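PROTEIN DESIGN WORKSHEET
SECTION A - STRUCTURE
LENGTH: 602
TOKENS:
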């Protein structure tokens, strides 16, 4: 047994190091941990993949689908549209945005809630001439606080509920988290609105007009004369001819009075074609010199030009939108050229910003990272779907606009029915929420393909892999060993200090590893501490849930923190300025509330 514990602690140490290192995605690290424990016999072969059928994993998947369906139905859009009317005072904007995103995060995935309200925050900041940095960190922290309100607000709550069921006391219910979660959310939002936002760095805007990208490209019409050697060759060959000199985008092709927006790169050019090209002045000059194309306004092709439309009009349905690369995006680690974005997704990437600054290197040489901001160009009707398929979250668009809600009552009704079934113990939580998700698809609020895309597979794989590893921590006696070491302090520390100590330890852990992984590893230890103190496990499980959900010190502890890093222009060390006092405030408020609602002798 001692050998098993030593081996398990070595594997867990390497796993935590892998999470903190960040070079491998967290689901890959979790799978390596699962394989290591399985191959060494710490997890029985028949239990290695039992996590895939665990109710907590199924529930998380259902919550992700329901979150996407509610967004599609316009339930949250209705709130977002009204937020644009709150006025220009910074404190009012902060408390309104943070409060609404916290409320939304209690019922939908907190990353999804943040993604929806980020465009609103950016629009507000730019509209008032301020940097988005004063709004985005409060927004991210509000989404974390709001996740503590209900069972489905965040994956750690679902995990903790499952561990309570293993103690024989029954799983936590839908609103069992509400008293403690509501207390820390109200206090936390009040702190952020009154003091916290003033502690965030006020980054300068990149441009005088408040836009992140200063677009200096020119939209120009070029004529393909018969003498051009590119007549009879493809658009791709044309672009490749200047690939080493400049970035050039062909946004439309005019042929015999017919306009083709965003033509295929395999389209063969014909003499007399007019191309609508987007390029800066240097790129345009290189294109003219290398290819022999002519400006459409020159005397030699004036007759051809007369049949074309004005450049501004020919852009027609093309639109620009800013989007952020999500951590699980298929863009991560790839380049625009490798993914063939124009042909496969119908979008052009015009510019990339990283950590608040526009990248100057050639677009074809950039490999995307989570948090990169992209300026995308595409057709107005297809660009949102392309961003969803790529795993990008809309940040803001030129001419900011929030879509009108669609079938709000139906979506809200289905979701509310699922919550009622869980709240009154009429159905198990996994069954009720899967049923609600299926109902959303049948009702046409969410296409089935989008339902599968809504499931964040890295999170699902992480949970499915770490649950057996957490079980090994218990079966090998590892959790009892850690608990025994902590219980040595129980002789001279009061019970509330033991609870605070556990919460702080989990909080620190969740700032360097995924919060779901932190909950999986800490829950068995909390139960062992409770047994050693002859106390109810409930307050300790609640302490683990709160600690795992409140990662305010670093940008890597939670996806919400990561997503706002680039748009806000934050540095790694910026988070603790507001995050540290907020973390202390959470502990001060949560510990007495837990002991009041969930006493040690319960």
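SECTION B - SEQUENCE
RESIDUE ASSIGNMENT:
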């Amino acid at each position: 047994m001692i050998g098993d514990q030593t081996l398990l602690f070595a594997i867990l140490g390497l796993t935590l190091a892998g999470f903190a290192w960040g070079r491998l995605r967290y689901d890959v690290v979790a799978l390596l941990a699962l394989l290591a424990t399985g191959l060494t016999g710490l997890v029985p072969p028949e239990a290695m993949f039992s996590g895939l059928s665990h109710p907590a994993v199924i529930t998380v998947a259902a919550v992700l689908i329901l979150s996407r369906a509610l967004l599609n139905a316009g339930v949250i859009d209705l709130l977002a549209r009204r937020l644009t009317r709150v006025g220009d005072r910074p404190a009012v904007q902060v408390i309104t945005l943070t409060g609404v995103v916290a409320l939304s995060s209690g019922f939908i995935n907190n990353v999804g809630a943040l993604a929806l309200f980020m465009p609103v925050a950016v629009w507000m900041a730019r509209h008032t001439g301020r940097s988005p940095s004063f709004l985005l960190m409060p927004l991210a922290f509000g989404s974390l606080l709001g996740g503590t309100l209900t069972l489905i607000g965040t994956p750690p709550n679902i995990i903790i509920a499952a561990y309570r069921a293993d103690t024989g006391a029954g799983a936590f219910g839908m609103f069992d988290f509400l008293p403690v979660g509501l207390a820390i959310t109200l206090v936390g939002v009040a702190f952020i609105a009154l003091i916290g936002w003033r502690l965030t760095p006020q980054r300068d805007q990149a441009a005088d007009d408040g836009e992140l990208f200063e677009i200096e490209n020119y939209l120009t019409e070029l004529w393909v004369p018969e003498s051009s050697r590119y007549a009879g060759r493809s658009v791709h060959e044309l672009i490749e001819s200047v690939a080493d000199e400049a970035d050039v985008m062909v946004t439309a092709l005019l042929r015999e009075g017919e306009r083709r927006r965003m033509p295929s790169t395999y389209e063969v050019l014909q003499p007399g074609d007019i191309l609508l090209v987007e390029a800066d002045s240097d790129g345009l000059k290189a294109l003219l010199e290398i290819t022999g194309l002519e400006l459409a306004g020159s005397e030699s092709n004036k007759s051809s030009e007369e049949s074309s439309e004005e450049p501004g009009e020919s852009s027609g349905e093309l639109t620009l939108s800013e989007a952020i690369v999500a951590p699980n995006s298929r863009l991560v680690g790839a380049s625009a050229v490798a993914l063939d974005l124009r042909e496969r997704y119908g979008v052009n990437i015009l510019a990339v910003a990283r950590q608040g600054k526009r990248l100057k290197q050639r677009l074809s040489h950039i490999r995307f990272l989570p948090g990169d901001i992209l300026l995308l160009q595409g057709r107005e009707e297809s660009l949102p779907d392309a961003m969803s398929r790529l795993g990008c979250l809309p940040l803001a668009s030129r001419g900011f606009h929030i879509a009108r809600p669609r079938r709000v009552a139906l979506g809200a009704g289905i979701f509310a029915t699922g919550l009622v079934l869980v709240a009154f113990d009429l159905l198990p939580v996994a069954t009720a929420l899967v049923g609600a998700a299926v109902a959303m698809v049948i009702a046409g609020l969410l296409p089935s393909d989008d339902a599968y895309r809504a499931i964040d597979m890295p999170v699902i794989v992480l949970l499915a892999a770490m649950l057996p590893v957490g079980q090994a921590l218990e079966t090998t006696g590892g959790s009892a060993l850690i608990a025994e070491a902590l219980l040595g302090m129980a002789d001279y520390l009061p019970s509330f200090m033991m609870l605070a100590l556990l919460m702080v330890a989990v909080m620190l852990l969740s700032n360097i590893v995924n919060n779901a992984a932190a909950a999986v590893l800490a829950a068995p230890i909390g139960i062992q501490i409770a047994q050693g103190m002859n106390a109810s496990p409930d307050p300790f499980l609640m302490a683990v849930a709160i600690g795992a959900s409140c990662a305010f010190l670093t940008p890597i502890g939670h996806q919400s923190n990561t997503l706002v890093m680039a748009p806000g222009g934050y540095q790694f060390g910026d988070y603790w300025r507001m995050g540290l006092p907020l973390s202390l405030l959470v502990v001060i408020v949560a510990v007495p509330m837990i002991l009041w609602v969930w006493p040690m002798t319960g």
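SECTION C - NOTES
The longest helix spans residues 575-597.
The beta strands are 218-223, 249-255, 258-261, 274-279, 294-295, 318-325, 347-354, 357-358, 373-379, 392-397.
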